[in-house]
Write the structure tokens for this entry.
Amino acid sequence: MLSAAGVATAAACVNQRLRRETTMRLMVILLVGGILAVLTQSVAADDGMFPMSELSRLNLRERGLDLTAEELFNPSGVSLVDGICRVNGCTGSFVSANGLIITNHHCAFGAIQKASTRERDLLQEGFRAASRAEEIPAPDYQVRITEDYQDVSEQVLSVIAAEMSFLERTRAVDRRCRELEQEAEKQHPGLRAEVSEMFPGRTYVLFLYTYLKDVRLVFAPPVSVGNFGGEIDNWEWPRHTGDFSFMRAYTAPDGSSATYAEENIPYRPRRHLQVAAEGVDEGDAVFLLGYPGRTSRHRTAEFVRYERDIRLPLTVELYSWQISEMERAAAEDREVAIRVASRMRSLANVEKRSRGQVLGLTRAGIVEQRSAREAELQKYIDADASRRQKYGTVLSEINGVYAEMTAAGPWEIHFQQLRQACQAMSYGFYVVDAAAERAKADLEREESYQDRNFEQTSGRMLLSIRDWNRRLDITLLSGILERLGQFPESRKIPALQRLTENASLIGQHAESLLTATSLGDAEFVRACLEKSSEELAALDDPLLHLLIELYPQYVQMRDQQKAQDGQLDRLYGSLLEVKEQFLAEAFVPDANATLRLTTGRVRGYSPADAVIRTPISTLRGVIEKTTGAAPFNTPDAVLKAWQADDSGQFRHPRLGQVPVAILYDTDTTGGNSGSPVLNRRGELVGVNFDRCFEATINDFAWNTDYSRSIGVDIRYVLWITSRVYGAGYLLQEMGVDSAE
């Protein structure tokens, strides 16, 4: 019999083999999927993340929904959207009248990690609050609920003058948006206003939100359930991950938004979602409401080329290196492992997605397809003298901006990582930037430093200092300085030249800077946030002085980015205008973290010849994958419930197992994590958490052949919560019968 160490070693070997096999299989899948995408590009794909303003033009009945547009969103009354919220960068759903929220485990991961210690490891053990008094505050979390929206394009665009530089244009638009936000908040006390650009340079919408600042952790399964399969299974199908957690939003006793206080009461949503404990089956219509992040489907071929050839590969390389250093530090100390867990998981998720996007963009020929379409568009423009005069150089000018980005990208990305990979550098940059920005008039500041945002952003930064590790930061600072030393641009900045000109001394420089700094001390940083730029310069802190010396270069890069944004906004406004003429159709705006609807069906797919992926995974698959070692170490409580065949009403009638995850062809991207998967009646049947590896390129292009999203089946959520971990009272709160 193998010892415990032998089992762990064997499992590690198996996991390494699985990684190799997975990589090879994914390359084959993407090759075949890319060919299918090219062969079927003429087939109309039902892509679209529709803003609330577009619902009235959709035939919801044809999409399988039994609801009307007004039942989905009605700013004048109660609608389904009132049960949907944004939880930090994810989506969540209210599932009870007392502010109970369901979202993903990976969305609540930061709260779980912050509350964990070596002695009380909630990541490993999970968490269950037996009463509201035991719920754990998540101070860096906010919940946002969409209340209304208004088109403000005319007001925003009115400030643009022909003689403005591109930088002046961006600043004028930003200022006007902030003015509109302040005006709206005066008219609607207690609500938060935010202007979002929908189509670059063309349309802007002002959204009104309720913001809730007291959010608490209620229930989270162990990470061995919530992240079963880890990075091996991430972005994969089939999945067997119970990626869900429960949180609760609170208000002041009078119902107003308030930060944590013992006397606060649960938030009372106008509407909460009904849970459909029977779930769904293959072929059933589903839809999602949520806050997808950013997509780039209206960007040109040269933008995609920049992403494919520059930004994404560098993201993979830099994040892989950082993850490996964190893994090394975590292996030596469980306390360190807890402190870096949230950051490491976030980096790993982006790294694998970026890797999939590079492969997917290459295999599916997205750049080539877009280039061919743009050549046809240019022919259309050139065929008419008036069009040629107005739009003739639009594409070439856009491509010129991306040529600049491509040339500068490698060094600029590394230079940005200097203040991101090393956490103490990120704290120092925030302090220096805050001093400069807070000296300006409120409307002229960068968004993070405006009065309406500063307390929240600075509080979140100060909270992150709890996880700081000096030794890890020394390693990461050394590594990024070594990389920067390879660029001739670094020699143009005296501070970088001093640190990198002698490669053998870079490690000593990093250690000296981080040993002497106080930027890992939250109280020191808090005090710095009260100081002016001159007062900061007088402090005896070498790392802070380094940031002060580098700061003008960072500001220059930021202004250059704003100038490029201003130029691209103008150019893309013209490009979309002529594309609408050419194609004689309207477009759905790219996702931008505002509320969207997407529809589809529970549906499998064929990623390769003779390979069929069915759309529902089951508990049997969890058991089959279990090795006893992370990331396939199923908890004993789950194994015992399986052995007892304690499925109750959560068993799938056709499959004879508790369903774990479901696959569907809705159009999703980042930010849809935690989105409710809803049946045709608008009842909760799952929680979205991922896409298939082939669908990582959804940010750039959607195709019915390879775009699939993944959610945890509501039956697995209910089974884990009640039968396995004894929190049946949460099912009662949701109105679900947990009895046989």
Summary: The longest strand covers residues 203-212.
